[in-house]
User: Fold these one by one.
Assistant:
Number 1:
Amino acid sequence: MKTLIVHAHPEPKSLNSSLKDLAVSTLENAGHAVQVSDLYAMNWKAVVDAADYGPHASHPLRVARDSGRAYDAGALSPDVRTEQEKLLWADTIIFQFPLWWYTMPAILKGWVDRVFTFHFAYGVGEHSETKYGERFGEGTLAGRRALLAVTVGGAESHYAARGINGPIDDLLFPIQHGILYYPGIEVLPPFVLYGADRMTDDDYPDIAKAWEQRLLTLESTDPIAFRRQNFGDYEIPSLHLKEGLEPAGRTGFGLHVRG
């Protein structure tokens, strides 16, 4: 297995950094190849601008169109091209980050904004009476798996179905379904550590054991059963889920998960 770890935490001695290091050692000791994109250590540029697209940047800048033209011409900035090559190399991608203000850190969102360009992560495939492009289960990154490894400051009860912060599955849905599944990546159930701000050194051995177990079962874990866009569950071109496919009483983001 070839694994890319995309890590987003500014402190090398943080819990997130420890989990990233443990992932590297665990997977390599199991015979897997690992690459790491440590975004803070790389001083990753988190904002899209015309410099990403070189001579293919228009005036005014049109991010989708210009990024696609630059991608097609092999003219994206070298740091973006390198990250795209890592994604194409990997079988599995682990995203290691803290949940800040209900989402990923800005530097990681900036990695997505810059790396997931038009014609690479979206804007591919045919549009017809039966297909609406290759996305949500199809696309350039199909055949790969991803796992979110997330630390959360609040207690688990805060992120339960009736918790004040909302269910953790709902908070992660825009990342898991909207960013990862969109270009075809299958998404494994997340590894979430709650109450991270109150953990002590004494807690770490149990955390490390649980993380190692998840890492060593990545290949055998079933992905979240998100519905595929072009395989009969949705009306085209409205992309509304067909009536009667959902379990009784299910609403919201859960509509887009089978079973």
Number 2:
Amino acid sequence: MTKIIGVGNYIPSETITNLFFDQHVFLNEQGILLKENNASITDKLKKITGIEERRYARSTEVTSDLGYIAARSAIENAKIDPETLDYIIFAHNFGDVRFGTVQSDMVPSLAARVKHLLGIKNNFCVAYDVVFGCPGWIEGVIQANAFIKAGIAKRCLVIGAETLSRVTDIHDRDSMIYADGAGAAILEADSTDDVGIKAHLSASYTLEEKDYLYFGKSYNNENCPTIRYIKMDGRKIYEFALLNVPDAMKKCLDNSGYSISDLNKIIIHQANEKMDEAIVSRFYQLYETPVPENIMPMVIHKLGNSSVATIPSLLTMILNDELEHHKIEKGDVVLFASVGAGMNINAFVYKF
């Protein structure tokens, strides 16, 4: 069985409230000024996504720095020697983007940079990156589990970190959704008890769904004609997620051998509060069961959407007793799930 033995996160110190966007010039895809005033735009954002604040990295920090801090915290939490790590798997999407630039730096890999910062001398600790959209951290966990079950590895570090604030178009109101952050976990082989990963699944939808999230031009076509930024078709993503994610979650839970009544928590990618609530509601509808109270912790209100970092950051907060009304006790069964660029969906069931 593959067991989580340590977790850590890094929540950047720069708090960005919705008032930060009060003087932004928001345009539509044609470059035309939006009719609504900014107060109405941010109010609508809060009602739909739940986001009141988000965190941005300091100007001196890049994604690999955030990942390193989260990794170091997870190593300390696990009380292990980092030299015993067989793999470092770093999930991200845009590499290191330095403040004030839009250029992605991914060579060497961010995992290699973290290994360097950790001072690991073991050449057989393999460091590589995963680019899988927002589900990247879960995919890293699934890969680590495969290595461990195959006997290729005994202990792995899986990191999810991103600085989405560096790749957003300031003229696109969707830029208010994105945030920065990092989370990490140490996984290892454990045959002594019943704790660990019980089931997992992954899927990639790459026909018309491929372009629901993409890199596109700024809505300010005159001033930024060649630079590309993260763009999304929010309506299509919402519809895609509601149609496909609940079924994937059900398939994963069913494969684990647990019933819906055994489930204690759902830790889902913090993308959009209303969308996540709708996904979980449809998931329970598949079992003809009402949604239990406090089944789905949410921190998007204060932390925004930091892509691959949302799930490991949230898990760390729960295990560190930092969230009111949310605890994970020994023996609890937790379903992790995510959806994002690709379009990719994945999930795993874990018994604590």
Number 3:
Amino acid sequence: MRVAQVTAYGGPEVLVTAVAPDPVAGPGEVVIAVSAVDTLFVETQIRTGWGREFFSVRPPYVVGSGVAGTVRAVGDGVAGAWLGRPVVAALGESGGAAELAVAPVDALVPVPDGVPATTAAALLHDGVTALALMTTTGIGAGERVLITGASGGMGTLLVQLAKARGAYVVGVARGDHKTALVRELGADAVIDGANREWPAHARETLGPAGADVVLDGVGGEVGLAAYELTAKGGRFSAHGAPTGGFAPVDAQQAADRGITLLGIADVQLSGKERVRLATEALEEAAAGRLRPVIGGTFPLEQAAEAHRTIEARSLLGKALLTV
């Protein structure tokens, strides 16, 4: 079978198409004929060698931490009723960018009728994390919510979910196309992050008290500027660091202001909880209440180009691989 494999740490050019043996389902496992592969920004960082203290994967490895497709074969102890069913499955750190992928049956989530494989793949990780963030931050009706990286795969979902909970949503995105998308998704106000004065504009929009909740998917200095816009007694959640690091927030200062600091560790979920939230995300999509934004799809052979595009931040929403 064909796979997209990282041969060494480095730039996108180390991601090449290779041939690997077809996998076989072991006890409690299934083989999935892959249709679409979720592709995350953090995977481009792992490819460069970043985060080795957090991630165990080492070259050579097949990229892709989650897939959508159809169950082709089942191992011992797996009900035959799974055969032929469209599913999504989180695979851990690698192994999805292939014609066939193995997943434990406990990780499978059935895809509702009418939901395309690309939509299902796009919600597999970002949908789960976005729903978890709604719970950990406790966003409620009437609260003012600031979302950085609002035009990204995660940010676009957070805008929709926060609005559905009755919040006043202020999104930060860069450039006319991205700000227009965030506005289309329902944000009450959109700030162009390409403007160096964006924090002042956001403060004016939020009001003197600031944001009750900040959802920071960018990190670095952008995240720190967003933190400064958090109201006293508010909640600041840092769930993304495409800049290479999370916002360098002073924990004591936050405590002095009564701000609750939340991070990616607060949305590290059990496998069972991930399945539950993925099911909820897919049901919301099937009902037309949640729409992932897919900015580009790339065939398996163009996995390197997908990574280049993600790193360039030139897409609206997500990039996916298709098989």
Number 4:
Amino acid sequence: MTHPVSAAIDSALDLSVVGGYTRLGLAARRRLPGWPPDSPAGALVGTHVVVTGASSGLGEACVQMLHDLGAHVHLVVRDEAKGEDVARGVDAGLARLTTWRCDLSDLDDVRDLAGRLLEAGVALRGLVHNAGALPPERTESEQGHEQTMALHVLGPVLLTDLLLPALTDDARVVLVTSGGMYTQDLPVDDPEYLRGEYAGATAYARSKRTQVEILGALQERWGAHGVAVYATHPGWASTPGITASLPRFERVTRPVLRSAQEGADTSVWLVATRPRRVGGGLWHDRRPRPTAYLGRHATTPADRARMWDWVAGAAGLAQ
């Protein structure tokens, strides 16, 4: 049970945004009564975990942390050479590390990767969907979908769905989302961002809002196979992606940005912790979080259902 004083401080940090999303918030929460313990050494020995977007930033941190807990980590990257460099940085001998090339925004590429992973015959304990991008202009995937929606939603959903036969009965699926989703409504009437002036940051946040709002549908679909699915908000972390996409934001917040390891903490913890936490929700700093504050950008069940229908159709999920 969460200590009432701890819960009050924790919520206040969240509402302050800067207090909750920076390294200061994480440091404060770690000192509060009731902070969940770290997973023990060797918690993931004998398991296999897939990490997408594993060539830098939060993905690279996830690879290192999961490997340190004993997992065999499968790095999914667009640039295989970069992925192999990350793997060698974790362990020069490449013990318990395998690199796979895939563009997660290309659904044909996703199907190919799923086939190769299934053929490899590994039993997967976890999938961490970290691959992300914030394009400055509207671009489309190979299948003609808006790029952020294809990369952050359609690709991860399709890959997980195809890999269900390989997931263990204690499997955990993590969608790495963003606090930016709190600023946007669910784009149920324009999922492909065809209306209005395109803004990369807005597209990014809309796709992240979509990730969070379809969690219930994903848990219902994948839970039937014994899988728990979560979205994790890493806070504001210092990564190459932030520096490249939001340079002004990075310069202003640099003194308080989290490290990539701090940003990846909850994703790794959810994969490793026992007992497994209940799926279907948004997490930040090892605690479930609301998907809207003060009613802003709250979503109706009908809109969530409509959005899920679009995602399932666009991703080509089997019925």
